[in-house]
């Protein structure tokens, strides 16, 4: 016996494009793209930054310092993802996305003023603690799309995070290289 899925249980969107949540999807994609671009933009200059901190031995332990700074964000985000999800269930998705975005932006500004290794690690961990956008944006994506059209916008979120996450280090490295090329004319640009 064949089982069929009841089609009347699924919401049906008319062919009118005004019901497709393009604006909300675009905003979510921009938030995801901006977050991943900002988070991954530190990777090209992180080794140089870590070696410039006082009392750090640049040669044998540089990888340890870079790894500690880089993983502090992920550890902080791991510890508070459920909190941000529960908070977004209580007060709404938009306030949580706005709050997390603003707090993460403030954390990036603070990271730029770090002069010691322990400061960089603490600021990165704090940025992870206040950044709950990964799960909340994914939840929003699932909520604003109907079951029949989930295949249309679903690739957008991972695509924007991958695109932002993979392009940010390239952009920073390119602009760093252009800056060093202007300062040192014997060093040719490669990008």
Report what the structure shows.
The protein has 191 residues and is mostly helical. 68% of the residues lie in helices and 0% in strands. The protein contains 7 helices and no strands. It is elongated and about 55 Å long. The chain starts with 21 loop residues before the first helix and ends in an 8-residue tail after the last helix.
Layout of helices and strands, plus pairs?
Elements: H1 22-40, H2 46-52, H3 62-91, H4 93-112, H5 117-129, H6 133-144, H7 156-183
Helix pairs in contact: 1-6, 1-7, 2-3, 3-4, 3-5, 3-6, 4-5, 4-6
Q: Could you give a quick summary of the protein structure above?
A:
Helix content is 68%, strand content 0%.
Jot down its keywords.
single chain, 7 helices, mainly alpha, elongated, 191 residues
Unreliable stretches: 2-17, 183-191
Please provide the count of β strands: 0
Work out the helix count: 7
Q: H/E series, N to C? A: HHHHHHH
Distance between the termini: 61 Å
Helix/strand-derived category reads mainly alpha
Biggest pleated sheet: none
């Amino acid at each position: 016996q064949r089982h069929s899925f009841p089609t009347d249980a699924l919401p049906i969107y008319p062919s009118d494009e005004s019901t497709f949540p393009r604006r909300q999807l675009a905003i979510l994609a921009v938030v995801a793209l901006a977050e991943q671009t900002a988070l991954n933009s530190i990777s090209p200059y992180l080794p140089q930054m870590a070696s410039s901190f006082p009392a750090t031995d640049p040669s044998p332990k540089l990888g340890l310092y870079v790894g500690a700074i880089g993983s502090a964000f992920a550890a902080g985000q791991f510890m508070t993802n459920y909190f941000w999800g529960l908070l977004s269930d209580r007060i709404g998705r938009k306030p949580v996305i706005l709050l997390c975005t603003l707090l993460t932006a403030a954390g990036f500004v603070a990271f730029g003023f770090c002069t010691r290794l322990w400061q960089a690690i603490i600021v990165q961990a704090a940025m992870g603690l206040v950044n709950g956008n990964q799960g909340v944006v994914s939840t929003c994506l699932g909520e604003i799309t109907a079951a029949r059209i989930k295949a249309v916008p679903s690739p957008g979120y991972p695509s924007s995070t991958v695109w932002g996450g993979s392009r940010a280090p390239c952009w920073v490295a390119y602009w760093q290289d252009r800056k060093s090329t202007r300062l040192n004319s014997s060093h040719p640009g490669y990008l």
